[in-house]
Amino acid sequence: MDVLTTRFGTLSVPPQDELYFDQGLIGLEDCRRWVLLTDSENPALGWLQSIERGHIALGIVSPRRFVSDYQLRVDRSDLRTLELATERDAEVAVIASRQPSGLTLNLRAPLVINVENRRGCQVVTKDAYPVQFPLSVANVALRRTA
User: Fold this and answer.
1) Which of 32, 55, 67, 114 could form a cystine bridge with 82, CB 3.0-4.6 A?
2) What is the largest CA-CA distance in the chain?
3) 48 located within any domain
4) Of 119, 91, 89, which is closest to residue 21 (Cα–Cα)?
5) Per residue in 5-64, pLDDT tens?
6) Are 32 and 20 within 8 A, CB to CB?
7) Is residue 145 part of a domain?
8) For residue 50, what is the domain's CATH number?
C-alpha cells in the first residue's frame, strides 16, 4: 500500500510492516494503523507514521536511552490487547515532542509494542512520571564519534 506523507513523501508499506493500535493513541484515537520508520540521521530516533493520516508522524525513542532507571508499571489488563506470550516480548517507546523550551519525552504514557504480532497500545503508568520530561545535554549520554 502506498501512503502519501508530508514528512517522508510517498511510502510503500507492505502489510507485514503495519503496526495496529486497537485504541489508537491518546488524542489520536482514530489513528490505528501505523508504520515504524528509522531516522537515517539519528539512530536513537524512530518515527511512528500514521497510515491513515499522512500528516501525522511522531518521533519516538527508547526511554531507557535517556532515563536509565525508567520502569514501566501498568496493570496487566492494559496490555491484554497485545497478546504477549511474556512481558519480555514487549518493546517500550515514548513520544518525543518539540516544546518552546526544547525537546521533551512523554514518560507518563509510553507505547508498548508486541513486535511479533505487530500490535501496540499506549498506556498510562502507575508511577508519577512527567508528560513532558525535558531533555537536556545533561540527560543525554554523549560519546565521541571522531
Assistant:
1) 114
2) 47
3) yes
4) 119
5) 999 999 999 999 999 999 999 999 999 999 999 998 998 999 999 999 999 999 999 999
6) yes
7) no
8) 2.30.290.10
